[in-house]
Design goal:
By secondary structure, this protein is mostly helical. It has helices at 3-13, 18-25, 29-36, 44-54, 58-62. α2 (18-25) packs across α3 (29-36).
């Protein structure tokens, strides 16, 4: 599972829309969409915010795990 898949899965588990997640971390819905589709990568600061929101480690987010 790559970063995009993890962001999508964790976001849905939290019951957040792309818009709601984007507002929480100070970015756009389009940026969240790009991350989820592996067309972009969040900045370090945003990765830290994602790990806090989803209550997972940055290590978990960044390491590519085989499904």
């Amino acid at each position: 599972m790559d970063l995009g898949e993890k962001i999508l899965k964790l976001r849905k588990e939290k019951g957040l829309s792309q818009e709601a997640l984007a507002e929480q971390i100070g970015t756009t819905r389009q940026a969240v969409s790009k991350w989820e589709n592996n067309q972009g990568f969040p900045e370090t600061e945003k990765l830290l915010q994602l790990s806090n929101i989803f209550e997972v480690s940055t290590d978990f987010l960044l390491k590519d795990e085989k499904s």
